[in-house]
Design a protein that fits this description.
285 residues; protoporphyrinogen ix oxidase, domain 3; 2 domains; 13 strands; 21% strand
C-alpha cells in the first residue's frame, strides 16, 4: 500500500491524514507522516479554557453545519470521533442568531425575516427584494474573483460594502476585496456556476445518511465544550492511536517539494522523505 506525507497540522492537514488512514476506504494508506512547522497542532483552531470554565477561542469560534459539503462533513467527522456529547449547538430559534453591523456610529440589526425583504432595513437603502431580482438575472462569472466583486455583481455595491464586507471580516478576519469567492464562499460560487443564481436556489444535497440530517435539522452553528481546538486535539488522539499510528511531527517545516521517478521528495527542516502521495494544506504563497 502507498505512503503519504501531509503538509500542515491545521484542521485541513489533520483531517486529510485521518481520512487517508480510515478503515474501510479503498484508498487506505500504509503509512502517513504529517509535518507541522509550529510547536502545536490545530493551526487557526486555538482555544484556552480558564479555571472558571470559560473558553476563549482565538480564531474560529463556531462551525456552520450547512446541509451540503464541508459543513455537513465536519459534523459527521465530530460524530465519528466520538464528540457527540461535547457538541454545543445553537438552535435556529435562539436569539443569538441575530446579526448586527456597526455603521455610521450605530449598531444595526441585520435583516432576517421575509418581511425584511420588502421593506427598507437601515443601514441598507435598497429593499432586499431588488437584490434577489438582480441576483436572478446577473450573468455568470467565467473566472474566480474577490468576494466584494462577486457581491457587487450579483447583489449590488451596497450589499458588497456592508454585508459582504462584514461577513468576510466575521468569518475570516479578512478583506472582502482580497479574498477569493471560490475559496472562501464556495457554496455561493458553486450555486452561481450550477444554477445561475444564488438567493432563490438550492445546491445539490450530498449523499449523507439521513440520521445526520435529522440530527442537525435546527442547528445554525455549533462548537465544542472545550472550544474549537477540541476537534484537532481529538483528531491528534485518534491519529496517534495504535489503530492509525500516523507519525505526527511538530517543529518540522517543509521547505521544498520535488518530483523524481514517479515519487515526491519532501524536504523539511529535519531531512528528506520520499513518498507516493503528498497532501498539502499549507499557505499557497
Ligand atoms: C480570526 C479568524 C476567525 C475565523 N473564524 C471562523 C469561524 O468562526 N468558523 C469557521 O468555520 N472558520 C473560521 N475561520 C476560518 C478557519 O479558521 C480556516 O478556514 C481554517 O482554520 C483553515 O485551516 P487549515 O488547516 O486549512 O489552515 P491553518 O489553520 O492555517 O493550518 C495550516 C498549518 O500549516 C502549518 N504550516 C504552514 N507552512 C508550513 C510548512 N511549510 N511546513 C509545515 N507546516 C506548515 C501552519 O503552522 C498551520 O498549523 C476563521 C479564520 C480566522 C483567521
Amino acid at each position: 500500500m502507498a505512503k503519504a506525507v501531509v503538509l500542515g497540522g491545521g484542521i485541513s492537514g489533520l483531517s486529510s491524514a485521518y481520512y487517508a488512514l480510515q478503515e474501510g476506504t479503498s484508498s487506505k494508506f500504509a503509512k502517513v507522516v504529517l509535518l507541522e512547522a509550529s510547536n502545536r497542532f490545530g493551526g487557526w483552531l486555538h482555544s484556552t479554557k480558564f479555571e472558571d470554565g470559560a473558553v476563549f477561542d482565538y480564531g474560529p469560534r463556531s462551525f456552520r453545519p450547512t446541509y451540503v459539503g464541508s459543513g455537513l462533513n465536519t459534523v459527521e467527522l465530530a460524530l465519528k470521533l466520538g464528540l457527540r456529547d461535547d457538541i454545543i449547538a445553537v438552535d435556529k430559534r435562539d436569539p443569538s442568531n441575530v446579526r448586527y453591523v456597526y455603521k455610521d456610529k450605530k449598531v444595526h440589526q441585520m435583516p432576517g425575516t421575509i418581511l425584511d425583504a420588502i421593506r427598507v432595513v437601515p443601514p441598507l437603502k435598497r429593499r432586499l427584494i431588488w437584490t434577489a431580482y438582480q441576483d436572478t438575472f446577473a450573468a455568470k462569472a467565467t473566472e474566480d474573483e474577490s468576494v466584494h466583486s462577486f457581491c457587487t455583481r450579483r447583489y449590488g455595491k451596497e450589499i458588497a460594502d456592508i454585508m459582504g464586507d462584514a461577513m468576510v471580516r466575521g468569518i475570516y478576519a479578512g478583506d472582502s476585496k482580497k479574498l477569493s469567492v471560490r475559496s472562501t464562499l464556495s457554496q455561493l460560487y458553486n450555486l452561481e456556476q450550477q444554477k445561475g443564481r444564488t438567493i432563490l436556489a438550492r445546491g445539490p444535497m450530498v449523499s449523507m445518511s439521513k440520521p445526520i440530517l435529522h440530527y442537525i435539522t435546527n442547528w445554525t452553528m455549533w462548537s465544542l465544550k472545550e472550544g474549537c481546538q477540541q476537534l484537532p486535539d481529538t483528531l491528534v488522539k485518534h491519529l496517534t492511536s495504535p489503530q492509525m499510528s500516523a507519525e505526527l511531527q511538530l517543529n518540522n517545516k517543509c521547505t521544498k517539494l520535488t518530483f523524481k521517478d514517479g515519487a515526491a521528495v519532501v524536504t523539511s527542516d529535519k531531512g528528506e522523505i520520499t513518498t507516493d502521495h503528498v497532501f498539502s494544506s499549507i499557505y499557497a504563497r
